[in-house]
Amino acid sequence: MDHDPLPGGRWRTTTAIKELMLARGLKPGDPMPTESELVETTGVSRSKLREAVRTLTALDILEVRHGTGTFVGQMSMRPLVEGMVFRGVLAPGDDATMLTQVVEVRTGLDLGLAPRIVERLAGRDDTELRACVQAMVDAAGRGESFTTEDRTFHLTLAERLGNDLYGEIVAAFWDIHMTVAPRLGLAGARDLTDTALAHERMLDAAIAGDIDAYRAAVVDHYTPILRMLGQPGPAPRDA
Amino acid sequence: MDHDPLPGGRWRTTTAIKELMLARGLKPGDPMPTESELVETTGVSRSKLREAVRTLTALDILEVRHGTGTFVGQMSMRPLVEGMVFRGVLAPGDDATMLTQVVEVRTGLDLGLAPRIVERLAGRDDTELRACVQAMVDAAGRGESFTTEDRTFHLTLAERLGNDLYGEIVAAFWDIHMTVAPRLGLAGARDLTDTALAHERMLDAAIAGDIDAYRAAVVDHYTPILRMLGQPGPAPRDA
């Protein structure tokens, strides 16, 4: 269960803390026992315990709130995002490669959602998604970017699936994308308009129950970013 | 860039280390400067430095090899897998929910790969994938499980896309799945055979260039596990 590469005390200590969390049936957000109680229960030194707490905090398995105490963490995608973003930052010459891979992953996640999204949205408009798309189209018309609406759009789609984990992954790769992308330059007015309209076509296709049109719009909506990345064209679409 | 929730010294120290890695153009696997040099360069205390190294090691941004030194890490999916597996472990009553979400994510990742896979494999058999499928069918015939071949099959498919990041995510969710799944009981002989044959249908459909058959086989190949999870049937397929 524990893939911690460091041998010895620290590995045993993180495992001991995890076992204690399990034995007590703790859930994300629950308060952890005090440091003194942990020292007593696990039988490890205070300094080893602090090291282990730090490791588990980095993994979002624990959360230290200063002045309050230590709590069970959310086990979120944050550690993934941090690692991936820094991997992108470390390879500035490969920014385009990294971002192309991220865009392919995002395309895959969106195509993977397609059957469910079309099934859920077919036949009735979705006021939340419609408002989101309209805000993007309006912003593009003013030559302004619309990253907040863009993120909301993708998260709302994932929410419609009713699978929190899928939503977290979509959000994580959106965050990685948006952190890495700006180093490649800003989107032009044409890119903004194309992107906004492609989101609108995704929504229209889903409401029309047309999965092929939905998939085509998913692929199209990454065309502006792939154009900026100097790719010859959109990722091969299903046609 | 740094989402570290802890204020003060530690945040500044991890950032200082990251900035040094950037300034020196270090890449995964490169040796890090010695602790003494890091103390001198960053101007932080040895204890704060060690804390920060520990945090970055948990995130696989650094890697400590005992007796050798500290190196730039691979920034892999390991921290994600560790957090997700422990999230699953912490919620034993919700095992089925967790695993259903993981299966949906894996289905989505596979469906997202579909257009590219069919494009790459159409028209010629793939000896590596064929051998893998044959080994699964043979094992199922003997009533044995075939997790190694199963993992190889999915990783090889992702490799055919030529996107390492996608492959890492596929592998990460395969690992999360296989770590969480055994607590729900073992697959029966029928499940083994159904799963092996569905992998074979995926390969046959890709080689035939039939994306709809490929997608159907992807969904089918999760049916045995969804049956074990007590789901009413396969995830809605595109039909």
Poorly predicted segments of chain A: 1-9, 233-239
Shape of chain A: elongated
CATH hierarchy class name of the largest domain in chain A: Mainly Alpha
What is the radius of gyration of chain A computed over CA atoms, rounded to a whole number of angstroms? 22 Å
Please give the share of residues in helix of chain A: 55-70%
Question: What's the CATH superfamily of the largest domain in chain A, by name?
Answer: GntR ligand-binding domain-like
Distance between the termini of chain A: 43 Å
Count the domains of chain A: 2
Folded structure, characterized:
The structure is a homodimer of 239-residue chains. The first copy, chain A, contains 11 helices and 2 strands; from the N terminus they run H-H-H-E-E-H-H-H-H-H-H-H-H. Chain A is elongated and about 60 Å long. In chain A, strand 1 and strand 2 form a beta hairpin. The N terminus and C terminus of chain A are likely disordered. The two termini of chain A are 43 Å apart. The longest helix of chain A is centred in the middle third of the chain and has 27 residues. With 239 residues, chain A is mostly helical. Chain A folds into 2 domains: 64 residues, Arc Repressor Mutant, subunit A, CATH 1.10.10; 151 residues, Four Helix Bundle (Hemerythrin (Met), subunit A). In chain A, helix 1 crosses helix 3, helix 5 runs parallel beside helix 9 and helix 9 packs antiparallel against helix 10. At the A-B interface, helix 1, helix 3, helix 4, helix 5 and helix 8 of A face helix 1, helix 3, helix 4, helix 5 and helix 8 of B. Chains A, B: InterPro entries: GntR_C, TF_FadR/GntR_C, Tscrpt_reg_HTH_GntR, WH-like_DNA-bd_sf, WH_DNA-bd_sf. Chains A, B: It comes from Propioniciclava soli. Chains A, B: This is FCD domain-containing protein. Chains A, B: Keywords: DNA-binding, Transcription, Transcription regulation.
